[in-house]
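Handout for the seminar on molecular recognition.
Each group receives one record of this type.
Step one: identify the two inputs.
Step two: read the structure output and locate the region that could contact protoporphyrin IX containing FE.
Step three: write two sentences on what you found, then compare them with the reference statements printed after the record.
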Amino acid sequence: MSRAARLMLAGVAVAVVALAIGMIAGGRAFPRIIPGLPDSGAVVRWGLPLSKLLMDVFGVLTVGLLLMAAMLLPSDKGVLGRSALHYVKAASWTALSWAGAAFLAIVFGAAESVGRTVPQIADGAILSSYATQTTQGVALTLVVLFGVAIALFSRGAITAGAAAGLLAFAMVTLLPAPLTGHTSSSPNHDLATSAVSLHLLALALWVGGLLVLAAHALRRQPQLEVAAARFSTMAVWCYAGVGLSGLFSLVARLGAVSDLWTSEYGMLAVAKIVAFVLLGYVGYWHRQRTLVQLGAGRPRAFTRLAGGETLLMLATVGLAVALSRTPPPEFTVPADRAFELLGFPLPEEITLGNVFSLWWFDLFFAVVAAVLAGLYGAGVLRLRRRGDAWFWGRTASWFIGVALLVFATQSGLARYAQVMFDVHMIEHMTLSMVVPIFLVLGGPVTLALRALKPAARRGDRGPREWITTILHSRFTKVVTHPAVATSIFIGSTYALYFTPLFESAMQEHLGHIWMTLHFLISGSLFFWVIIGVDPGPNRLPYFGRLLMLFVTMPFHAFFGIALMMMGTVIASGWYEQLGRTWGDTLLQTQRDGGAIAWGFGEIPTLIVLLAIAVQWYQDDDRQARRADRRADRAGAGDPELDSYNAYLARLNRADKSE
Ligand code: HEM
């Protein structure tokens, strides 16, 4: 058996031992069986966490293999090298094992949900209803389906682009299962959902990347130093992400700091924090020592430390699964339906003061805003340091866009938007019509292409090459086609509000995240095509851009009027459960929402018209100057033209002297 395979086996063994210790410490290993109460037995009690552990390990490994193939190992003009191809093939097996582990979790989960043993549910009825009707069951079924899909597609992937697409798919597949555990029952489920999602995305890249890097080193494969250097840059951000999101996950589940040392759940979390700090120290040591030696052609220290680090990481994953099986300490929360649905008490009557004062922290969009501001700021700083100019107006526009995004997702506006339809419509319009205008006028793609260095090796893909590849891809050509961008922008609004989609999006925090992201992305796409300053595949002439803008206006007006004319309340199931007693009736707030949708469009339209006029004028001016320069160049040495110009100059001087 190869050294890499031995390391992986040892890693799984350590993870299982850590899980067992965590289950015992968390009081889940030998619970008191009360006679007469249903008990699914030891097989299910251990089978479920073990299958969850295997899901996490194979999920993280699949992400690590695809990350190594698509991003860490150099490719040649987008075609994967021999090692990278080997990892994509290996990912098809780990993805299949991931799906298998998820299926096992469905079997044990179904048995546990009815307090029966596995043989007692062998007839399949309980299994199929669990897999199709419970949130946990449906989430696990999604993992089975997506895992099999990744396994199949990986068989045929030979380009870096395909491997990157599979990597994104695998990242999404990580989310359903943990999001239906403690997360959904946590009093502060919005924070818990966002925190555990970010936690898993960051740790899958970090843990998965290191697992495969350690195996690559043990197998003495080529380009280890390139892959390790790239991983090291990414690992710092992932480490910060895992730590922050882990702490927010804890905040969402613990009622008081003292729960950390007075509850089993708290003590397991402390054990994880200790492991996290240790892993941080190992990372520091890599950066100080082993990566330097590796760069000098001495991989031994790096390989040994990466091997040990792999074992510590998998032990922490084992602890984490035990943590997810240990009930968090109870703490008292208002026992009203509104709190259950919103994760915060129903706010008092809306006032402008409350909109500006009742801020509500949304971790997911706080991270989105921080990343948008951080990356753009870093790009501008890099140009500055290089002495390259970047128009201050673009920077100002970008940061206005980010500030408006923060206001729309974190202020009282976001809180009241969940309670009142008209306020929701203001949030929708701000996110899909105002924020995108300022963001696209910031020219983020142009900045990235100017700030990022080209890849060190010819034909390889660094961040800059990935951006150009995506810009020139067929996908970008299709989605930025004016007809497609307009249909998404307009069509999705109708599809969201005139189908049950809106109510389901309001019921689930993930649905709400998706809806808000959709407003932002569909709006950015639309305005990027009309007034974007970045290079793009489908640039319309200015007249075409005006047309595209005006085409949308009647649809917006009609949408608003339709809302104002409706006799039934949209998403009544959601709004009625909240039990709001102040302010207008549900139907009246909906009609106000219609009026807002109709009227709100005027402001952005004005801004866009102004932007188009300025861009049109600047473009004309640029072309005129270019034509002049061309004429000058063409005219240089042409005696006839020179004499005519001299004549004009003389006339001019004569005019002035008069
Ligand atoms: C500051 C350090 C960390 C804290 C405070 C933390 C906290 C948490 C919390 C509260 C959860 C949710 C558990 C639940 O469902 O109740 C979680 C999940 C998880 N954590 Fe961490 N964590 C930390 C570091 C790590 C590290 C270093 C790893 C791995 C190397 C890790 C791996 C995981 C995994 C795999 C899950 C999902 C478990 C599952 O539901 O399958 N965490 N973490």
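Reference statements: The chain has a mean pLDDT of 90. Residues 169 and 405 are 27 Å apart (CA to CA).
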